[in-house]
Structure formats: C-alpha cells, structure tokens
Amino acid sequence: MLRARVRVVLVGAGHAHLLVLKHAGALRAAGVEPILVAPPTFHYSGLATAVLSGALPPGRALLDVGALAARYGVRHLPAEVAAIDRQARRLHLSDGQDLAYDAVSFNIGSVTACGGDLQGEGEAWPVKPLSGLAGLRRRLEDHLADGVSPSIVVAGGGPTGFEVAAALAGRVERAGLSPRVLILRRSMPDWASARALGRLSAALQRRGILQTSGEAAGRRPGEVLLLDGGALPCDLLVMATGLQAPAVIADLGLPLSQDGRLAVGPTLQSPGDPTVLAVGDCAVITGSPRPPAGVFGVRAAPILAHNLAALGTGARLATFAPQSRWLSILDLGDGTGLALRGRVWSLGRGALMLKRRLDLGFVDGLRAASGEVLED
Ligand SMILES: Cc1cc2nc3c(=O)[nH]c(=O)nc-3n(C[C@H](O)[C@H](O)[C@H](O)COP(=O)(O)OP(=O)(O)OC[C@H]3O[C@@H](n4cnc5c(N)ncnc54)[C@H](O)[C@@H]3O)c2cc1C
C-alpha cells in the first residue's frame, strides 16, 4: 500500500539528476512526483575544453534539459532556485514562482571561487559557469581574427587551470599562430605524480604554455596585477582558482563541510534535515571528501533514485560510498590527453581518444534519450 503522493523537487540538472530522470516511471510507481527546476540547457563539462579549443563545435557539449525531462514525463521549470524556506518547505525560484516540496534534492554543481575584485565584467573570465566559456572563446577569436596571439594568463594551478590553458593554446594553434599562455599558480602542483606533472609541463612548454608562481589580485588594461605588487602582461585573464558550492547551499542553514559544501550522510540526506538531499560538487559525504568531478554524480544516481523512491514507499534507504580511485582525463587541446587514475598516468593521443569515447557516449546517450536526432 503506497503512502500519499510525495513531491520531490530535483534542483539542478547535474549529472545525477539527468540520470534520475530515467527513473521517473519507477518514482511515480513509488508514489513520488518528481519535478525538475533547472536552466533549460546543460553544459557538459567533459567536452567544455574540446569546444573551447575548437576541436568540437559549440553545440556538441549542450543538452536540452526540457526535452529530456519531457521524454520521461517529468515537469520541468526552466529556472534556478534562488532561496529556500525549509520551515515552510517552499522553494523560491529565479522567475518569481514559489514551489512547495516534501523533499528536495540538490545537484547544482559548483561555481568558480575567485576574488571579489576580479569578478567584474571584462575583468576576468571564470571557468564556471561553463556557459561563460562561449564568451571567452569569442573574445579570443576576436584577437585571432586580427592575426594576433593575445597574451593569456590562466590563474590556478589545478587540473582545470592546466586543461583550460592547453585548450586556449589549442584554439590559437588552430588559427596558425603561436600561443602565449601563462599559468599563474599559488604553489607547485601536486595533483598528479611528479613524473606526470614534469612530462605535462615539458609538453606544454614546447607549445608556449609557461608557468609562474603568483596570485592574481587585480586588473589594469593589458596587465594582471599580482598580490606581491608585481604585474604581468595580460590581454585575457581566466580564473581557474578552484570550485566552490553555489551560495544557495550556505543559505540552507544546514551543516556544511569545511570547504562550504553541503554535508550529507551515506544516504545522501543532510543530517540536519532528512528532507534535503544533495549529490555532486555541491555536496560532500562526511568522511569521504572527493574532488569536483562529474563521475561521482553519475555513480550516485542509482542510489539517489532508489532513495527518492523510498521516500514514497517507506522502504529502507540505500547508502552510497564514492569510489576511492577514479579516472580523470585532461584534454590538452592538441589531440593529446593526460589520463590519471591514482598514481597511474598516461600522456598522449590514446588518453584523449578514450576521453572522447566516454564523454561523447555520455552526452550522446542523453541526447538520444531526449529524442534529439544525432547527425554525427
Ligand atoms: C573547464 C572545466 C572542465 C572540466 N572537465 C571535467 C571533466 O572532463 N570531467 C569531470 O568529471 N569533471 C570536469 N570538470 C568538473 C566538473 O565541471 C564538475 O565536477 C561537474 O560538472 C560536477 O557535476 P555536478 O553533477 O555536480 O553538477 P553540474 O554538472 O555542474 O550541473 C549542475 C547544474 O545545476 C544547475 N544549477 C546551478 N545552480 C542552480 C540553481 N540554483 N537552481 C537550479 N539549477 C542550478 C547548473 O546550471 C548546472 O546545469 C570540469 C570543470 C571545468 C570548469
């Protein structure tokens, strides 16, 4: 015997929620009414740098969220959640609507953590939201159309900083020019083995992608100002200075991890409010922190779907343990990639071929499910 219908609002069309849509029939059978609140377009991060480098056309990394939701009979509200009233169990949406919920699941990804002075229009290009990368690419192409290889500074020495620097260099190379790209990093990178990073740095250096220590603190026309008082030539400043949870997560008034993500237990529920669940970059399973990567949301999706259905049937909730080793592959913008899994790594064309196969498989699977006719 099913309980009364439970309304579950899925906030954000992140990796996990896109896959949960496929379970909509099972959710309804369990007495759960799923509703999706998310912007109309999903920008798939696995192909973001391929589009930035010009290796793939811009539309290749996009997914029509409304079409996918419609395919599985899920009501989609094309908006963002701006605020939440947990006492009243109501969500306030960016389009002014209010929406009641019985349970709410957040899969809203992350935003770039960059200094307040560097967020102004035209000052710097944050790597997230990914929708902003189209503007960065256009600005770069304006320079290239004048036959100029602009001086590009990418602030951030993490894998995203390296990947974005290599992608921008790839776009310059595709225009027949020599890249002038500088990775500005706070400290020596340690996100891969010293040998892997050494090989990567040497390969990038041969293409005109150099590295230096420092921190971006401000902008002047043609220059980036550094925290230590120095300045560097810079036509385009890109901020890859780390990812953090969107502000709405802190506004929930629930326990957070040290880095500001929503702390959840293995059932993906907040310990402070079991009607609030979260997955992906915006959350962390207490005791099992992981870096931002789409794969964790993908793996969590079936557990999340099970647990949302259990809210309708009263069944026991399942637990999720994120994997302790995972594959990540950087697209280096020149037909090569760097694959990393634990301390094992591989640099070359094979790594990128594998990445393309996995990423195109993921996004094309969803596009086909949404009814889109795939041309290539
Ligand atoms: C340039 C770049 C390249 C990357 N490449 C890779 C890669 O190759 N592989 C990889 O695993 N990771 C990569 N990452 C990291 C990756 O972006 C994230 O780890 C991953 O997207 C997180 O997935 P998610 O499911 O948590 O959320 P996301 O995929 O970020 O999706 C969250 C969704 O929620 C929506 N949203 C946000 N706020 C709200 C709101 N308030 N209300 C409603 N909806 C909202 C967003 O529009 C977005 O569609 C890359 C990151 C960058 C910046």
UniProtKB/TrEMBL annotation:
InterPro entries: FAD/NAD-bd_sf, FAD/NAD-binding_dom, NADH-Q_oxidoreductase. Gene3D superfamilies: 3.50.50.100. Pfam families: Pyr_redox_2. Residues 7-286 form the FAD/NAD(P)-binding domain. GO terms for molecular function: NAD(P)H dehydrogenase (quinone) activity. The keyword Transmembrane helix does not apply. Keywords: FAD, Flavoprotein, Oxidoreductase. The keyword Mitochondrion does not apply. GO terms for biological process: aerobic electron transport chain. Its cofactor is FAD. This is Pyridine nucleotide-disulfide oxidoreductase. It comes from Phenylobacterium parvum.
